[in-house]
Amino acid sequence: MKKILINLAIVVNLLLTIVSSLKAEDNKILIIVNSGIYSSISSSIASFKAKLSAEGYNVFEIKSWVKTKKGDGIAAADIRKYIKDRKEGLKGVILIGNLPYAKFKKSASSIFSTDLFYMDLDGDWTLNGNYYTAHSGNTNPEIWVSRLTANTISGSSESVFLKNYFNKNINYRSQGLASNGKGLSYSDKRPSLSKLFGSAKADSISNKTKYKEKYKENYGLLHFAGTGSSNCKTITFASGGTADKTSAKESKSLFYNLLDVSKIGSFKQSNYLSGHYLFNNDYCLAVLANSSSNRPSFSSDETLYNSLYADGDGTKPLGDAFLAWLKENLSTSNYGLLILGDGTLTMAEVLNDGSSTGSIASADSINSQADQAVAGIISSDSDTTAPSGSISINSGTSAYTKSTTVTLTLSAQDDAE
Description:
- The chain has 13 helices and 20 strands.
- By secondary structure, it is of the alpha/beta class.
- The strands form four sheets. It has a ten-stranded mixed β-sheet with strand order 3-2-4-9-18-17-16-12-10-11. The chain has a four-stranded mixed β-sheet with strand order 6-5-8-7, with no helix packed on it.
- It is globular.
- The N and C termini lie close together (7 Å).
- 42% of the residues are buried.
């Protein structure tokens, strides 16, 4: 009689280790946290780091940064130098808390914060006073940057907002925070979401009454193209009326595209609306936003959505997709575009109705593969043939730096009767 001599727990742990080592080689993430908030959220950051490590990221450093004057070009240059000194293999940077930021002056009436200053590490930025007024040389960004700025949001303390954010982030990664697998677009200017979700799962409306009936549904992505206010606290519908922090708190979508809305991402301003979506809300994980009053310059949101869906199952990280898209649409009109939230997140759970088909997203999915393989071995068991089987994991080419296949062979041996 043959007996399977394999411990599935060991298989799962071994596979996780192998996959992580493949992915982490050039998947370095740097986290910079305001020193004043770090101690109160350190346990949340530790849990977040553990989750990223399990997914194959190398969170090689968590830097507690002593805050200097916000909006100071020199202070921002210090952070940029810190990032640049660690750029080898660096995938992205997550900025947490009230940290210095760079301001870009496009014209006398157009001055805004820009995270491109931290994303482009090889270009030349000209500082005049506290503003950067020119950008030259190799201007293409090399890394993505996302930020979590909650100190300007009313309704709770900064630490509570950040802890709650990490809780829902980890919950989503553990498949505990799901959506209806659909997209909602309020827009009369941009294409629908059909290329991302499919026509049957893309709700596109231009009527504010219908929008107000829909926005409380649990959509995977909400795309809103309206007019932002000068104080960054409201969005104006084309037909009149506004969406404010009350509707932001009530909205149940997981991801938001607000790139078309001017100043909606002005995180330096009190109660900026994107911040209410991100922090004063139990669902929102990330917002693509605009910190400037400029209308963005790009031909179509579909190119961004195609980048997000490039792997066929939504497993491309938001930061990677945004970086690739911004390189193709780089102009000073887009210097205020940014990611609010976590750039390592993917839309796999949203686009696959809560499943992680096509990707190794958790120990559960690996365990399922192991179960199936061992079941196949047992079913072929006989007294004359030692059963064997294998689990093969292909790393792919977009989530990893190179294509690699790892095969674990499962075997059995005779047990003397």
